[in-house]
């Protein structure tokens, strides 16, 4: 196996293990990792349009409309006409959605603890540089860049008590 094949295999394995662990942690809440991410973004940075949301989350199939439709039906998210522009629909969390976003942030904190333990003493900058180089020039680069200002992790003194993940 050459280095590129090994990198691809490791990247895929990390993504699958992360998804598996996150799904397991979120299962008691009745939400998927994608739903949790949407709820956290809306709770911390919303309301926003479907297009704005689509630019911040890596969705299967590239667009969040079906996921958001299911979340609206489930009572987690509400679509409302924007106060600034009546032609624009905005998404925001319902009260239940905010409760689930907070619970998801707490549950995903357990994932961050595990990940921090796994990576203890490992320099992250070279790995992040390599992964950023792979997506350079792709549409995913824009999504990652947009998320740099819309983190799911709070910063400051209370960061360790209110942790989330950008998964």
| Percent of residues in helices | 55-70%
Which regions have little confidence, pLDDT < 50, spanning 5+ residues?
156-167
> Roughly how many Å is the radius of gyration?
17 Å
Structural class: mainly alpha
How is the main sheet built? 2 strands, antiparallel
The ordered H/E elements are: HHHHEEHHH
Work out the helix count: 7
Task: Count the E strands.
Answer: 2
Mean pLDDT: 87
N/C terminus separation: 28 Å
What is the overall silhouette? Answer: globular
Side by side, the strands of the main sheet go 1-2
Beta content comes to 5-15%
Kindly summarize this structure in a few lines.
The chain has seven helices and two strands, in the order ααααββααα.
How would you describe what is shown here?
The two termini are 28 Å apart. The protein is built from 7 helices and 2 strands. The model is unreliable at 156-167 (pLDDT under 50). The protein has helices at 3-26, 33-45, 50-54, 65-73, 95-118, 125-135, 139-147, and strands at 77-81, 89-93. The protein is mostly helical. It is globular. A hairpin with a 7-residue loop joins strand 1 and strand 2 (89-93). A two-stranded antiparallel ribbon has the order 1-2.
Which helices and strands occur, and which strands form pairs?
Elements: H1 3-26, H2 33-45, H3 50-54, H4 65-73, E1 77-81, E2 89-93, H5 95-118, H6 125-135, H7 139-147
Antiparallel strand pairs: 1-2
